[in-house]
Amino acid sequence: MKQRLIRAVILLMMMAISLMGIQPAMAANSGDGAKLFTVHCAGCHANGGNIIRRGKTLKLKALAKNHRDTQEAIAQLITQGKNPMPAYNDRLTVPEIEAVAAYVLEQAEMGWK
Hints:
The chain has 113 residues and is mostly helical. The protein has helices at 2-20, 22-27, 30-40, 42-45, 60-65, 71-80, 94-109.
């Protein structure tokens, strides 16, 4: 009976440990980036545009002009914010920010179609 309990506890611990690594990986996929973008960004940046500052769109040409055409640069902007755009480091986790940045770059490269 005692061995059965020990095995069950070990099995549960192994399952818990294996599940710890799943959440960040899941948060960083493109589908989650799209969902997060819709919730947090699309109000100002629908279809890669910008309703506040027209020249600061998320189109590839504008991203390159503003030195934001890498996933790292986009993630930094999302994290820290700039001018009228607020920082999202207090609302999104690092994996979520990375997922949004990956989604934005992917969409920019495809012309937001």
